[in-house]
Write a sequence for this structure.
């Protein structure tokens, strides 16, 4: 009996041992499964975060990248360009036009003839907006200008062109006398408004076109058969222009421009302008030398008064010099 009881106790201890061993195995297996489950959750969450960040990067809009240096400066011979310098740029300009070349060596192709000259300056107080002031020896005119880049060409071609507005107002400051057609102060003013559209096609080649309207408050008159004064020209003149630049080296380019008046007047219709020249650029200077039919330094005078006819060889040699500073 004692032997039986002793054997029963051994069996119970053996059962308990195996029970404890298996429970320990199950216990360890439970934590192993839990650990695997946690690792899986972390892995899935990291993948989902990566996918979310990827989708977010796709959704995020990249900042616009604009095309640079469609033209080198503000001038394309007798026209403005679509370019507006960066904020804080101060510019000083010298615009000079000699006399016509049709007299040959008598006045050294116009160099010894009377010339038109303008000294001007401009500043960019805020992004894409330029304001300016100038003084001209023709009719002792002073002028004020404004230029605003409405749209700019982007590198991804979502905006394929640049569009700029240019406006100018000039005042004749000569002393009043009987020979001048000036009665009131408003008779001294003229205005020019233009929309320019340009595209940089390649790194070397850029083109530009524009449409403009010129207004003179007071125009020249003449006496008709009934001895009544009639206006010789309309107060408003419409015109368009096309031009371009082709770079032949990093600092040098060939430049061309054509201007065509559209309005027909009773008398003195302005002649079109065809001009061509060379542009040389450095870090702070822009120099253009050219020949064309326009002999004035202000666009409203050229579009309204030009009587130089290229079919008769009445070209004018001229140059533009610009000096820039950044503040």
């Amino acid at each position: 009996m004692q032997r039986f009881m002793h054997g029963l106790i051994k069996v119970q201890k053996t059962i308990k041992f195996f029970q404890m061993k298996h429970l320990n195995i199950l216990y360890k297996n439970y934590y192993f499964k839990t650990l695997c489950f946690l690792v899986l959750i972390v892995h899935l969450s990291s993948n989902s975060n990566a996918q979310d960040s990827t989708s977010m990067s796709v959704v995020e809009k990249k900042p616009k990248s604009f095309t640079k240096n469609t033209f080198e400066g503000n001038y394309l011979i007798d026209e403005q360009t679509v370019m507006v310098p960066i904020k804080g740029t101060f510019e000083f300009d010298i615009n000079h036009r000699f006399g016509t070349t049709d007299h040959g060596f008598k006045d050294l192709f116009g160099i010894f003839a009377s010339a038109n000259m303008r000294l001007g300056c401009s500043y960019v107080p805020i992004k894409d907006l330029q304001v300016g002031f100038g003084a001209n020896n023709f009719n002792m005119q002073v002028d004020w200008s404004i230029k605003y880049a409405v749209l700019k060409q982007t590198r991804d071609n979502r905006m394929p062109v640049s569009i700029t507005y240019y406006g100018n107002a000039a005042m004749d400051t000569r002393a009043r006398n009987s020979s001048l057609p000036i009665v009131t102060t408003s008779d001294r003013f003229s205005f020019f408004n233009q929309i320019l559209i340009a595209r940089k096609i390649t790194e070397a080649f850029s083109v530009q076109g524009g449409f403009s309207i010129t207004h003179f408050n007071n125009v020249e008159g003449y006496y008709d058969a009934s001895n009544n004064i009639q206006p010789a020209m309309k107060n408003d003149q419409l015109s368009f222009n096309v031009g371009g630049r082709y770079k032949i080296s990093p600092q040098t380019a060939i430049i061309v421009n054509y201007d065509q008046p559209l309005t027909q007047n009773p008398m003195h219709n302005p002649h079109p302008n065809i001009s061509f020249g060379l542009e040389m650029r450095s870090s702070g200077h822009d120099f253009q030398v050219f020949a064309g039919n326009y002999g004035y330094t202000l666009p409203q005078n050229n579009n309204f008064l030009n009587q130089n006819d290229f079919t008769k060889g009445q070209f004018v040699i001229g140059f533009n010099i610009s000096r820039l500073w950044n503040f």
Summary: Residues 171 and 189 are 5 Å apart (CA to CA). The mean pLDDT is 85. The chain has two domains: 1-60, 75-326.
